[in-house]
Amino acid sequence: MAGLQTTVFSILIITAVIIVFLIFINGKLKKFDPMDEPKGIVLLMMVAVQTIDNMVKEKTNEKVARTLTPYMLTVALYLFMANISGLFALETPTSNYSVTLVLAAITCILIEVYSAKARGTKSYIKTWFEPFAPFVVLNLFSKMSTLLSLSLRLFGNILSGGILMSVIYQMLASVSKMIPFMGEFNILGVVVAPVLHFYFDLFSGAMQAFIFITLTISFIGKELPKE
Amino acid sequence: MEKALIAFAATLCVLGGCITGLMEGKIAIKAVESIGKNPDAADKVQSMAIIGAAISETCAIYCLLVAFLIIFILGA
Fold first, then answer.
1. Of A28, A61, A89, B44, which alpha carbon lies 20 to 30 A from A3's?
2. How many domains does chain B have?
3. pTM of the complete model
């Protein structure tokens, strides 16, 4: 398949898994009686929705939270699945700069849209020229830096984890060749690598997904005028 | 010889991450201290600490990115 990057396939697989998972959850929720005690996966989903909803409502207002919470939940689910997909022998989508750049660009556009909606068009355009007109260049650069830092943070963390893991695997393979009677079998890799996978894939991946949504929410909350 | 120089340049770049690591530790120290003084504010302090750490981490990530560029573009 010339011209297609390998991450495209892992993106497709992850999207399919998320769709199947959400349809499954939807079926469970439809059967769920509101009077019952929630348990199992229903309880887990309720806690997740409530946590993100509280986070959004704390930083922004009720009106924004109605539209922002579903998007934030989707991004959290997608980023979490994408970051831990290295465990399932897929190429991690977030180690491709296009993916993180698009996610950060959506965040930047959302910041501007919510700011424009909350202020009204006229006073929104005025914010570009604050404190006075020549500052439009500096304002533009400060908005661009949000895009750059948000996308590079996610990309750099996940990519460095992946590169470190592959370097460690190579090192362990060449060390375990020196052990007699084992042949080419990478025995040290089996012992040492799981702990590192736990840190680099699970912990770092969940942490970066959490940081991405926290930063998105607080950047949007910062742009909203105080009532 | 040239490869050694490139590796040395990448190492120098990543050294910028040293200071970031030190100061992110300082963020954690201060967050723990302030939660100890005022346990009611734990939620707010936690989110502020995470945002502060994430933003100051940008510096280290730029260092890492420059190191990658040096290795993969100059070293290739």
1. A89
2. 1
3. 0.83
